[in-house]
Write a structure and sequence with these properties.
The complex is a heterodimer of chains A (327) and B (328). Chain A has helices at residues 2-6, 9-27, 34-59, 67-84, 90-114, 119-138, 150-154, 165-183, 185-195, 197-202, 207-233, 244-254, 266-285, 293-315, 319-326; strands at residues 159-160, 163-164. Chain A is mostly helical. With 328 residues, chain B is an all-alpha fold. A two-stranded antiparallel sheet of chain B has the order 1-2. The chains are: A mainly alpha (327), B mainly alpha (328). At the A-B interface, α5, α6, α12 and α14 of A face α7, α13 and α15 of B. Chain B: It comes from Cribrihabitans marinus.
Chain lengths: 327, 328
């Protein structure tokens, strides 16, 4: 059991993260103080939330490139709702955000499930459509900080035990989805549908429907993050989180999620997101121009996917084989 | 994704019927429809110079789309093309600051394109990595290098002879770019439809293992396709840089999606194995006409992207909806 953990992708990533933190702290001890680490975690929380949803989608052999556009659209809608009705309780705002995100995810899922359109085509299309809709409903205008109500802005920043609510939501999502992925039939169906669609069909799993649920979950998380994003940064406009979908896919790939489907864990997605988040937060501290960030995350993706391929080549992904080794 | 079952009919349809019912014919009708609608919607549309201007909307993207079509037919994809443009343009910009002349600039643009294509190709064919992840990675990497070099600056000062590649006219309203687009389309049509190499591309896309056992060097063909895509990105980088006259690291942002849209709209199956160059040519015109027509009507660019996105999903969804509806 312990041996299996040490050789696992997650352990490797934890090692890499500790090494990274060690390197930074050798010159800038202030970076690894608990307060700052909590800050980094909080800053990475949107990426973690989306990476968990994306992980599930990728597990089923799909990809969701519309998450960032979904986030931006939901964020714009809730901030406009907030401007129109400042008195609305946060619970209602949250319900609107999650509900709208879920609907947008379902739209992707339906096209993939019912019409069997390749997911990359569907989400490329919806990505541009969602962004366009934001422009249409907002008329290209920004919703600024002073137009948002104080309670709307305060929710994700309220601190509980030193960590803002935003960070706690990421933690809760990670726990909930770890349980879902390992302890429920739907969770196992995601692995089966991606690992071997034919076998899954014969086992009575509706692969298309499973993919639909994956997109729905990804959409719901994107919608939730949409509200948290606009309220945390206290601004909403067409281009928020532009290109963020690539960071999300990068976090998954770094976290050991196989793009061929069937392999990946929530913990991996979490660690992949944290790895990118720490790099992003550390760059200004170690005085490297933020312009380096894009190239570094690109390099990280390529190295990670090369490592993934090496690791998967020997083992194969037959569940039975792993079970045999375990006994 | 459900598995597609290919049924082989016992009686082939006549050639004429095949032609009439093909994707290309449908697309051509759409293009003509858009053309007519445009000429009614705006009085400025039917003007030789305006129409000539409209071709710039798609010529550079289409050059890459031809190579991308072959790549997608073979079952791979390259999302890093726009970033290759950025990197090649940055390299040319840096060379200008060192006083390199026009021939040197062209060589540098093509060379950087080839190198980037080779980098993608090695990662995919030698190391056996999935192309979508590799090129998402290199998409950040290549543009990232441009950002490192340029930051928030821009390169300018391209020689006048260089700008001819983007702004020059060969004859009357026929621009150099349009001629280049036509020549490249012809080359790729011959390459895909009339050569052994083209047949190999289809074979790989339909059944890579079968192609291998038929004696096709699958990895080598794929590597060449990545090289070609890189090279065409280099060509597009030369035209675009010459046309804009400056280089910023954000040059050609989002083009990879428009290029993939163009290819898929042209009837190339994103799952590989089928598609024609003629389809991509018509799709290029459709997209160019839509964006230009909407532009004349003062529709903002971002709203056009809704139309492009809806077009992408719609053209694939409608035939499938139709067949689902007919099966009932």
């Amino acid at each position: 059991m312990l041996k299996r953990f040490i050789t696992s992708r997650e352990a490797l990533l934890i090692g890499a993260i500790v090494l990274l933190l060690g390197l930074i702290s050798s010159r800038f001890p202030g970076f690894v103080t608990p307060a700052n680490l909590a800050n980094v975690f909080n800053d990475t929380s949107p990426l973690i939330l989306l990476a968990v949803g994306q992980m599930i989608v990728i597990l089923t052999k799909c990809i969701d490139l519309s998450v960032a556009a979904n986030l931006a659209l939901t964020g714009m809608v809730v901030s406009m709702v907030n401007v129109a009705a400042p008195g609305l309780p946060i619970a209602v705002i949250l319900a609107i955000a999650v509900g709208l995100g879920t609907l947008l995810g379902m739209f992707n899922g339906l096209l993939v499930w019912k019409l069997a359109i390749p997911p990359i085509v569907v989400t490329l299309g919806t990505m541009t459509i969602f962004r366009g809709i934001i422009f249409v409903i907002s008329d290209g205008k920004w919703v600024n900080s002073h137009e948002m109500s104080p309670t709307f802005k305060a929710f994700p920043r309220t601190e509980i035990l030193g960590l803002p609510v935003l960070g706690w939501i990421a933690i809760i999502a990670v726990i909930v989805f770890t349980v879902v992925m390992t302890r429920t039939t739907l969770g196992r169906a995601f692995y089966a549908a991606g690992g071997n669609p034919h076998a899954a069909t014969y086992a009575g799993i509706n692969v298309g429907k499973t993919q639909f649920w994956a997109f729905t979950i990804s959409g719901a998380l994107a919608g939730l993050t949409g509200y948290l994003w606009v309220s945390r940064f206290a601004v909403s406009y067409v281009d928020i989180a532009g290109g963020f979908e690539l960071d999300v896919v990068a976090a998954c790939v770094i976290g050991g999620v196989s793009i061929m489907g069937g392999i990946g864990t929530v913990a991996g997605a979490l660690l992949g997101a944290l790895f990118l988040g720490i790099i992003k937060n550390a760059l200004p501290v170690v005085d490297i121009s933020p312009f380096w960030q894009l190239a570094i995350s690109g390099g990280a993706i390529i190295i990670a996917v090369a490592l993934n391929a090496q690791a998967n080549r020997e083992k194969g992904r037959i569940i039975l084989k792993r079970a045999e080794q375990a006994t | 994704m459900s598995t597609t079952v290919r049924t082989i009919p016992d009686r082939l349809r006549s050639l004429l019927e095949q032609r009439l019912k093909s994707w290309e014919t449908l697309l051509l009708l759409v293009a003509i429809g858009i053309f007519i609608a445009n000429s009614f919607a705006s009085p400025y549309f039917l003007n030789a110079w305006n129409l000539s201007d409209a071709t710039f909307n798609f010529t550079e993207k289409a050059m890459i789309a031809f190579a991308m079509a072959l790549l997608i037919i073979s079952g791979e994809i390259d999302l890093s093309v726009a970033s290759i443009i950025a990197l090649a343009s940055t390299a040319m910009g840096a060379a200008v600051q060192m006083g390199v002349g026009t021939p040197g600039l062209v060589l540098i643009g093509l060379g950087v394109g080839l190198l980037c294509g080779a980098f993608n190709g090695v990662l995919v064919t030698r190391m056996g990595l999935p192309s979508i992840v590799v090129t998402i990675g290199t998409m950040s990497l290549f543009r990232g290098i441009s950002f490192i070099v340029l930051g928030d600056q821009a390169f300018r000062g391209y020689p006048a002879s260089f700008s001819w590649f983007g702004q020059g006219y060969v004859w009357w309203v026929i621009s150099f770019e349009f001629v280049l687009f036509a020549i490249i389309a012809l080359i790729y049509a011959v390459l895909l439809h009339k050569t052994n190499f083209g047949r190999a591309v289809y074979a790989i896309g339909n059944n890579a293992t079968g192609a291998m056992f038929s004696g096709i060097r699958v990895q080598r063909v794929k590597f060449i396709l990545f090289l070609l895509t890189g090279l065409m990105s280099g060509v597009a980088a030369i035209c675009l840089t010459a046309r804009l006259g400056s280089t910023r690291p954000s040059i050609a942002t989002g083009w990879e999606l428009e290029i993939v849209t163009m290819v898929v709209l042209g009837g190339v199956s994103i799952l590989g194995g089928s598609g024609t160059i003629a389809g991509v040519v018509i799709a290029a015109f459709v997209m160019g006409l839509v964006t230009f027509g909407l532009g004349l009507l003062n529709v903002p660019g971002i709203v056009m992207s809704i139309v492009i996105g809806a077009l992408l999903i719609g053209v694939i969804a409608l035939p499938r909806l139709w067949s689902v509806w007919r099966a009932r």
